[in-house]
UniProtKB/TrEMBL annotation:
Name of this protein: Aminopeptidase N
Organism: Litorilituus lipolyticus
PANTHER family, per database record: PUROMYCIN-SENSITIVE AMINOPEPTIDASE
One Pfam family here: DUF3458_C
Domain Peptidase M1 alanyl aminopeptidase C-terminal as annotated: residue spans: 550-868
Length: 870
C-alpha cells in the first residue's frame, strides 16, 4: 500500500528532524534480506513533534531508541509509516540514536523500486521514493546525511559488493559469506543511496582531474560483455573532461562506478559514486549497437555524470523542484552532445522530440508546469515537461543573459548552495544576481503550463523603409489555469534581404517578448524582408506566421541559421501533410521535388541533409491538427513520402549508392543516416523495393567489415513498413543470429511490433507467447508494447479499437507487475484529444475499463483520473 492522497507544493514545510549519519548493514538474501539501520537524529526545531518515518513493503523486526528496545505499544505502524511519538524523546538532548531492523524480499520486487534482483544481481533504485522500500526513513530530499554501508553476501555468488562512496573495509565471514564497507563523506538525500551485489566483469580505467587527483573508473557488466563497455568508458572520460573545461567542475570522490543491469525502469540513475544503468545505455559494439545507440550511451553517461554537481552536490528541496536538477542537467548534456557532434543536428533532434512528445504532454490531461504543484505518484513526474521543456527553459535563460553571465550564474549557484537542498527560485536568483538581469517575469515559466502559441504579423512600409513585426502570445486557458500571464520569451530571428548585388544577405536579431502583444520596429530596411523566426528554436513555443511557399524556400536556401533552414522545410512539409488530410485531390507541387533534388546535390553535411529529408512524425503533425483522423494522417504521410520517392528517385538512388560506397571506405555516421533515409523512400517504390533486402543481406554476409547494426535495422524497418515479402525470412534470420543477445532481441521485438500488416494482432499475440518475452523486464515490455503503440500508428489507431484494446490489456497486467512501466505505456491512450470523436470514444472506453481495475496503482490512478476528468 502507498499513500493515496496527493501532495501540494504549497504544503511544503521543513523536516522537524535531521539525520546526520546513517549506518546501514545489509545482509543480502533473495527472499529475506535483513537491513539494520542506525540513524543519528537531531530535532530541527524546538517544537514537540512525532518522528514519522516512511516505509512501504518492509517488515519491521525491531526498533531501539538510545539502545533501549521499544515495545509494539510504544510506536505506531501502518502500511506507509512508522511513528515514534514525541513523548519518547521529549527529554533527549541533542543527537539520539534510533536503530531499526527490517526485512525485505528482493525476489518478489517486480516493481523494481527499492532493493530488487536484476537477473542474478542485487541492485537498488531509490529515486524518487524507493528508499522507504528498503528501510524506515525520512524519505525526502531535504534530509541529507552521510552514509556508511556494510554489505554482506555469499562470496561465490556475489564477489562484488558495492555501495556509495569510498571502500573502507572488507573481509571474509563464516559460512562462505563476505562483507565490504563503504563510506560516503558527502551528505546526501536517501534517493541517491545505492547498493549492488553480483558477479560481474569489470572494466577499469582512471581519470586525472585538472587539480591532479586520480579517480578510479570502474564499469561493471554481465560476464562476457567486457568489450562492450569500452564506449561507455570513453564517454565517461569525455564527460569528465568537458565538465572541467566548460563549467570548471571536477569530480570529488576517489572512485566512480557504473553498473549495467538488464532490469531497470528507466535509463540510468546518478547515485553518488555508484551509477546504476539500464544495460541499454552502457553496452555497445558495432555488431550489436546502432549509431543512435552509441550517441545515446554517450549522452546518458554524460547526463548521469553531470548530475554529480547538478543534482547531487546541490540537490532539490522537495520533489516539486525536480526540474532544478533534471532540466539543468538535460541542458548540460545537450550542450555536451552538441560539442561532441554536429551542433545543428543535435539541436534538430532535441526539437523533434520536444515537438512530437512534450507538446503533446503539455496539451494532454497530465499537462503540468515544469515545477508541478500537485503530485500523487512522484514517478509520474519524470516527464518530458520536467526534463525537456525544463532544459528549454534553462536554454532560454542562457540566451537571455548570454554564455558568459550564464557561467557566472552557475559559479554563484554552486558557491551559494553547495551541499544544500534548494529550489528552482534559488537557481534563478543566482542567475539574476550574476547577470544583473531582472528575471522575475521569467520565473513564470516554472509555474505556467502549456505550449505558448505565438501569432505573428508583419507590415512593411515602403515610404519610411520600416518593417514592423507584431507578436502576440497566449498560453492555454483551462480550469486550472484561468488567467495565464505573458511570459518572458527570447525570440531570435533573421531578416533576409537582397544586398546591393542582389544576393540574399541575412541579419540576426534577438527580441524579448514580454507583453501579451508587442510590436517591434526595424528601421532602414531597404525592401520587405523575409523573416526566419525562432533561430536555434530559441523558445519552446508554437508559431503561427503565414509565410508563402516562396518565402519558405528562400529561408531553406539562404538563412544563416541551420535550424531555420531545416525548420522552414518542416513547415512546408507539414503544410502539405495537412492539406492531404483534408483534400484527397490536392496535387503536390513539383517545386518540392526540385528543392529535394537541390538538397541531394548540395554540399551540406550528410547528417544535416538526412534531417532535412526526414518528414515530421505522425505525433508531431497530430498535435497540429484539430480532431484529426489517424487513418487519414497515416495515409497523408505515406502519400507525401511516395510523391518524394517517385519524384526524386534518381537522385535518391544516386545518393544511396554514393553513401553505400563511402560507407565501405570509412565509418561515417552522417553518411549512414543519409543513406538510410534514402532507403526509406526508395523502398516505397516497387522498382527499388529490393534494395532493403540487399542491404540487409550485405550487412549480414559474415564479412566483418560489413557487419553493421544500423544498416541491418534500417533495412528491416523499411521492410516492416511495407510488409515486404522478404521480411519473414529476414526476421527469422535475425532472431536466430541474436537470440542470446538481450538488447538486440529488444530491437527484434520492436520491429515485429511495427510491421504494417492486417495480421498484426495475431502476430502480437504470438510474440507475447515467445519464450523470450516477459512483462517483468521493462525493456522487453516496452520493446513490444511501446513500439506497437508508438511506431505503428496505422494499427494502433485501427478503427475497430483493437489496438487500444491490446494496449489496455497489457497495461492491466503491468498494473500489478510494475506500475511505473504501466504508467509510462499509457501515454498514447490518454492523449486522445487530438483525434476525431470516434477514436476518442474507443480510447476512453479502454481508460474506463482500466479505471475499474481492482488494486489500481497510484501511478495509473493519477493519470486515469486526469484523463477521464478531461
Ligand atoms: N534521476 C534519474 C531518474 C529517476 C526516475 C525515477 N522514477 C535519472 C536521471 O534523470 O538522470
Ligand atoms: Zn537526470
Amino acid at each position: 500500500m502507498t499513500d493515496s492522497s496527493p501532495r501540494f507544493l504549497s504544503d511544503y514545510s521543513p523536516s522537524d528532524f535531521n539525520i546526520s549519519h546513517v549506518n546501514l548493514t545489509v545482509t543480502l538474501d533473495d527472499k529475506n534480506t535483513q537491513v539494520v539501520s542506525e540513524l543519528l537524529v537531531t530535532k530541527a526545531n524546538e517544537s514537540l513533534c512525532d518522528l514519522v518515518l516512511n516505509g512501504e513493503h518492509v517488515k519491521l523486526i525491531s526498533i531501539t531508541l538510545e539502545n533501549q528496545a521499544l515495545s509494539a505499544q510504544q510506536y505506531e505502524i501502518n502500511d506507509t509509516h512508522l511513528t515514534l511519538p514525541s513523548s519518547l524523546f521529549s527529554k533527549t538532548q541533542g543527537e539520539f540514536k534510533v536503530v531499526i531492523v527490517t526485512e525485505v524480499n528482493p525476489e518478489e520486487n517486480t516493481a523494481l523500486e527499492g532493493l530488487f534482483k536484476s537477473g542474478e544481481a542485487f541492485c537498488t533504485q531509490c529515486e524518487a521514493e524507493g528508499f522507504r522500500r528498503i528501510t524506515y526513513y525520512l524519505d525526502r530530499p531535504d534530509v541529507m546525511a552521510t552514509f556508511t554501508t556494510k554489505v554482506i553476501a555469499n562470496k561465490v555468488n556475489y564477489p562484488y559488493l558495492l555501495a556509495n562512496g569510498n571502500k573502507i573495509d572488507s573481509g571474509d565471514l563464516a559460512e562462505g559469506m563476505h562483507f565490504v564497507t563503504w563510506y560516503d563523506p558527502f551528505p546526501k538525500p536517501c534517493y541517491l543511496f545505492a547498493l549492488v551485489a553480483g558477479n560481474f566483469d569489470l572494466l577499469t580505467d582512471s581519470f586525472t582531474t585538472s587539480s591532479g587527483r586520480e579517480v578510479n573508473l570502474e564499469i561493471f557488466v554481465d560476464q562476457g560483455n567486457l568489450h562492450k563497455a569500452e564506449h561507455a568508458m570513453t564517454s565517461l572520460k569525455k564527460s569528465m573532461a568537458w565538465d572541467e573545461q566548460v563549467y570548471g567542475l571536477e569530480y570529488d570522490l576517489d572512485i566512480y562506478m557504473i553498473v549495467a543491469v538488464d532490469f531497470f525502469n528507466m535509463g540510468a540513475m546518478e547515485n553518488k559514486g555508484l551509477n546504476v544503468f539500464n544495460s541499454k545505455y552502457v553496452l555497445a559494439d558495432s555488431d550489436c549497437a546502432t549509431d543512435s545507440d552509441y550517441f545515446n550511451i554517450e549522452a546518458v553517461i554524460a547526463h548521469e555524470y553531470f548530475h554529480n554537481w547538478t543534482g547531487n552536490r546541490v540537490t532539490c528541496r522537495d520533489w516539486f523542484q525536480l526540474s532544478l536538477k533534471e532540466g539543468l542537467t538535460v541542458f548540460r548534456d545537450q550542450q555536451f552532445s552538441a560539442d561532441m557532434h554536429s551542433s545543428a543536428v543535435t539541436r534538430i533532434q532535441n526539437v523533434r522530440l520536444l515537438r512530437a512528445q512534450q507538446f503533446a504532454e503539455d496539451a494532454g490531461p497530465m499537462a503540468h508546469p515544469i515545477r508541478p504543484t500537485k503530485v500523487l505518484e512522484m514517478n509520474n513526474f519524470y516527464t518530458l515537461t520536467v526534463y525537456e521543456k525544463g532544459a528549454e527553459v534553462i536554454r532560454m535563460l542562457h540566451t537571455l543573459i548570454g554564455a558568459e553571465n550564464f557561467r557566472k550564474g552557475m559559479d554563484l549557484y554552486f558557491k551559494r548552495y553547495d551541499g544544500m537542498a534548494v529550489t528552482c527560485d534559488d537557481f534563478i536568483d543566482a542567475m539574476s544576481s550574476a547577470s544583473a538581469k531582472d528575471l522575475s517575469q521569467f520565473k513564470l515559466w516554472y509555474s505556467q503550463f502549456g505550449t505558448p502559441q505565438i501569432n505573428v504579423s508583419e507590415v512593411y512600409d515602403t515610404l519610411t523603409k520600416t518593417y514592423q513585426l507584431t507578436l502576440s502570445q497566449q498560453s492555454p486557458v483551462t480550469k486550472s489555469q484561468l488567467d495565464p500571464k505573458a511570459l518572458h520569451i527570447p525570440i531570435k530571428l533573421e531578416l533576409l534581404l537582397p544586398d546591393s548585388e542582389g544576393k540574399m544577405a541575412s541579419k540576426s536579431h534577438m527580441l524579448e517578448l514580454t507583453e501579451q502583444e508587442q510590436t517591434f520596429t526595424f528601421n532602414d530596411v531597404t525592401t520587405k524582408p523575409i523573416t526566419a523566426l525562432l533561430a536555434d528554436f530559441s523558445a519552446p513555443v508554437k508559431l503561427t506566421f503565414e509565410q508563402d511557399e516562396q518565402s519558405l524556400y528562400t529561408i531553406i536556401n539562404h538563412a544563416q541559421n541551420s535550424f531555420c533552414r531545416w525548420d522552414a522545410g518542416q513547415q512546408l512539409l507539414i503544410s502539405y501533410i495537412k492539406r492531404l488530410t483534408i483534400d484527397n485531390d490536392f496535387v503536390l507541387p513539383q517545386a518540392l521535388i526540385n528543392s529535394i533534388d537541390t538538397l541531394l546535390t548540395s554540399k551540406n553535411e550528410h547528417a544535416f541533409i538526412a534531417e532535412q529529408l526526414q518528414l515530421p512524425s505522425f505525433d508531431e503533425v497530430a498535435g497540429l491538427i484539430d480532431k484529426v483522423s489517424p487513418q487519414r494522417l497515416v495515409e497523408a504521410i505515406k502519400k507525401l513520402s511516395i510523391f518524394i520517392a517517385k519524384g526524386a528517385q534518381e537522385n535518391l538512388l544516386r545518393t544511396y549508392q554514393y553513401c553505400q560506397e563511402q560507407g565501405r571506405l570509412g565509418n561515417n555516421v552522417g553518411t549512414r543516416s543519409l543513406k538510410n533515409i534514402c532507403l526509406q523512400y526508395l523502398s516505397l517504390l516497387t522498382t527499388s523495393q529490393s534494395l532493403a533486402q540487399k542491404q540487409y543481406d550485405l550487412a549480414n554476409n559474415g564479412l566483418v567489415q560489413n557487419e553493421n547494426m544500423t544498416d541491418s535495422l534500417a533495412a528491416l524497418t523499411c521492410a516492416a513498413k511495407i510488409n515486404a515479402e522478404s521480411l519473414t525470412n529476414q526476421l527469422s534470420h535475425f532472431e536466430n543470429k541474436w537470440q542470446d543477445t538481450t538488447l538486440v532481441m529488444d530491437k527484434w521485438f520492436a520491429i515485429n511490433a511495427s510491421v504494417e500488416t492486417e495480421t498484426i494482432f495475431e502476430h502480437l499475440d504470438q510474440l507475447m507467447e515467445h519464450p523470450l518475452f516477459t512483462l517483468k523486464n521493462p525493456n522487453r515490455a516496452r520493446s513490444l508494447i511501446g513500439a506497437f503503440a508508438m511506431n505503428n500508428p496505422k494499427y494502433f489507431h485501427c478503427p475497430t479499437g483493437r489496438g487500444y484494446e491490446f494496449l489496455a490489456a497489457q497495461i492491466a497486467k503491468l498494473n500489478t507487475i510494475n506500475p511505473q512501466v504501466a504508467s509510462r505505456l499509457i501515454t498514447p491512450l490518454i492523449q486522445f484529444k487530438s483525434f476525431e470523436a470516434s477514436h476518442q470514444i474507443l480510447m476512453k472506453e479502454q481508460l474506463v475499463k482500466l479505471h475499474n481495475l481492482p488494486e489500481l496503482s497510484n501511478d495509473l490512478k493519477e493519470k486515469l483520473d486526469a484523463a477521464l476528468a478531461d
